[in-house]
Specification:
This protein has one domain. The protein is built from 7 helices and no strands. The model has no long low-confidence stretch (mean pLDDT 90).
Length: 166
């Protein structure tokens, strides 16, 4: 029972209610705008990994994983790795699982880790995004979320975003 206690401890500090409401509203508005952009541009932008990005960028804006360079860099790197995978070895489901690890390793090596981007190779496998439009779809979604986050975090209660280099 004592070991179970370590799994149940909350590691996030208690938040202020106004900040929590702002984060939830920001996430909702961001995904709504991404959905509108998807309709306008004809790209399938309402993707699971972008939902993960929204959760990070609006609830944990000071996290290294939520910084613009990590969001855009992680997604671009994962999309490039996925494009390579699809070009060289199309149709092999097991390669998508390996390329999740390859994308994660590349993000770590280049210090642009963004966990939701690790799912990009699975998007190509799952058929939710055509391989030919995967790169532009992922880039458009990532840039849209970063721009919205930059605006959102300047509204009261203000949050320093992106994090300042010390």
């Amino acid at each position: 029972m004592r070991r179970l206690k370590h799994f149940l401890v909350r590691h996030e500090p208690a938040g202020r209610q106004l900040s929590q409401i702002k984060a939830a509203a920001g996430a909702t508005i961001a995904m709504t705008l991404v959905g509108a952009l998807a309709t306008w541009a004809g790209l399938p932008l309402l993707l699971g990994p972008l939902g993960g990005t929204v959760a990070l960028v609006f609830t944990q804006p000071n996290s290294a994983l939520a910084q613009p360079v990590n969001i855009v860099g992680g997604y671009v790197l994962a999309a490039a790795m996925t494009a390579l995978m699809v070009a060289l070895w199309p149709g092999h489901w097991w390669l998508a699982t390996i390329f999740v690890g390859v994308a994660v390793a590349a993000m770590l090596a280049l210090r642009v880790s963004h966990p939701p981007a690790g799912a990009v190779p699975l998007l190509a496998l799952g058929g939710s995004v055509a391989p030919a439009t995967l790169f532009e779809t992922i880039l458009a979604g990532a840039l849209c979320l970063v721009v919205i986050a930059l605006i959102h975090h300047r509204l009261p209660p203000k949050v320093q975003y992106p994090r300042k280099v010390e």
